[in-house]
């Protein structure tokens, strides 16, 4: 899990209230070293172990792939389970190409590099008729949206999907030209962006 506090809260809400102290919980996040991941292996001896993500899918845009790869190398069975995935829910709700898509994750944070990456994503989308899925840290959502609207061609379709599964859920797909006429402010909410030329 990425953060103990929210993981405890989640496990408590899903029926483990009063039993959480019986669990051996460990943080695995973007700062966890490979040596620290390897140190978790003794936990696997004769026990079931779960890898939990705070909001998303373990090892897909979230930490965990090193642990899963290590399990495969050691012959430890891996059984993926999933709840709601913002990436797939955004794609399902976008109306864009769900047969051919690429998850690009986080693109560069620096403005010039980000704009160049957006141009490249649009070029690949056009060449492959492929939806390009990207995410950003919530505090950079509006900067990314601004660059998407500033760089993409007017006819490119852009889906913005924020707060999926929450009462404040927002999913809208418009052409860039339409977005430019009525731009949105996403703010610091979990958000997925999908573009298709």
SSE-based structural type: alpha+beta
Mean pLDDT level: 88
N- and C-termini, Cα separation:
36 Å
Number of strands: 5
Fold-level CATH name of the largest domain: Methyltransferase, Cobalt-precorrin-4 Transmethylase, Domain 2
Named CATH architecture of the largest domain: 2-Layer Sandwich
Strand and helix order: HHHHEHEHEEHE
Total count of domains: 2
Say which CATH homologous superfamily of the largest domain is assigned: Tetrapyrrole methylase, C-terminal domain
Task: Give a description of the structure.
With about 200 residues, the chain is of the alpha+beta class. It has two domains: about 5-75, no CATH class; about 85-195, 2-Layer Sandwich (Methyltransferase, Cobalt-precorrin-4 Transmethylase, Domain 2). It is built from seven helices and five strands; from the N terminus they run ααααβαβαββαβ. The chain has helices at about 5-15, 35-40, 65-75, 85-95, 110-130, 140-150, 175-180, and strands at about 100-105, 130-135, 155-160, 170-175, 190-195. Strands 1-2-5-3-4 form a five-stranded mixed sheet, with helices on both faces. Strand 3 and strand 4 (about 170-175) form a beta hairpin. Helix 5 packs across helix 6. The longest helix has 18 residues, at about 110-130. The protein is elongated, with a radius of gyration of 19 Å. The model has no long low-confidence stretch (mean pLDDT about 90).
Question: What's the structural blueprint in terms of helices and strands?
Answer:
Elements: H1 4-16, H2 34-38, H3 65-73, H4 86-94, E1 101-106, H5 111-128, E2 131-135, H6 141-151, E3 157-162, E4 170-175, H7 176-181, E5 191-196
Helix pairs in contact: 5-6
């Amino acid at each position: 899990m990425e953060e103990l506090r929210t993981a405890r809260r989640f496990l408590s809400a899903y029926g483990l209230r009063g039993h959480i102290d019986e669990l051996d919980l460990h943080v695995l996040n973007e700062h966890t070293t490979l040596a620290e991941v390897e140190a978790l292996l003794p936990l696997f001896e004769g026990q079931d172990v779960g890898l939990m993500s705070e909001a998303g899918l373990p090892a897909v845009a979230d930490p965990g792939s090193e642990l899963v790869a290590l399990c495969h190398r050691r012959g430890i069975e891996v059984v993926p389970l999933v709840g709601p995935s913002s990436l797939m829910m955004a794609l399902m709700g976008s109306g864009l190409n769900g047969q051919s898509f690429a998850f690009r994750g986080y693109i560069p944070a620096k403005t010039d590099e980000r704009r160049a990456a957006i141009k490249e994503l649009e070029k690949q989308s056009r060449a492959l008729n492929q939806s390009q899925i990207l995410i950003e840290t919530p505090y950079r959502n509006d900067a990314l949206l601004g660059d998407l609207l500033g760089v993409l061609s007017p006819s490119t379709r852009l889906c913005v999907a924020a707060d999926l599964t929450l009462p404040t859920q927002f999913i809208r797909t418009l052409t860039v030209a339409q977005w430019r006429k009525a731009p949105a402010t996403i703010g610091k909410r979990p958000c997925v962006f999908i573009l298709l030329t």
